[in-house]
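pinned: reference chain
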Amino acid sequence: MNATFPQISPDKNPEEKDGLWLPILITFTVLFLGIVYYKIVGVFTLRELLALIPLGIGAPRFIRKSLPDWVRKKDIVGTLNFEDTQITWETEDQQNKLPYADISQLLLHHNYIRGKSYGSRDILHNGIARLTVLPLNGRSQTVQFLIASEDQHTDLITVLKFLYRLGIPIKEAMGNYSIKSILLDVDLNYQKIQTYKQELNNGRI
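pinned: its structure tokens
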């Protein structure tokens, strides 16, 4: 197994800044531009009305990317690698390695996939994930990384399955409200949890 993710600066705050105010702001912005245009020209044609549609569609993503929690190139400081026997995270200055056999527990907080919504009424997530590693001996260590695509999201699920089956206890949570997840899935019920336990050989979830 080998999965690699961009490592994010520990100074990057993963808290998501997007919220219900964003669509409201966009709606008022589009209406304001429409009023200004009408004041100048005095009439709306079908062409002008249609021109406002892509503005309303493209504005949410543009505004979302301008918020401070969005990961930019300067925030990427290295890589995080899940290998067959160990976790490795490295920057230009240092490299850290920890065998899975030396891990007592993992804490994973994730914000889904960058630029994707979990549901129709959900926000565009920033994709930042924070992994805290609690070793059998020594102090805990935390590394932040980016889930930048659906492929990386799938890779992380594969990694988590592997780690659960090794018997490593993992506590997962998603979003600002720390909603419990298993294999990055937050749509949980009793039956689904039991199915996951069977799939993961009664992994410690």
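why pinned: DSSP finds four helices and nine strands in the chain. The mean pLDDT is 87.
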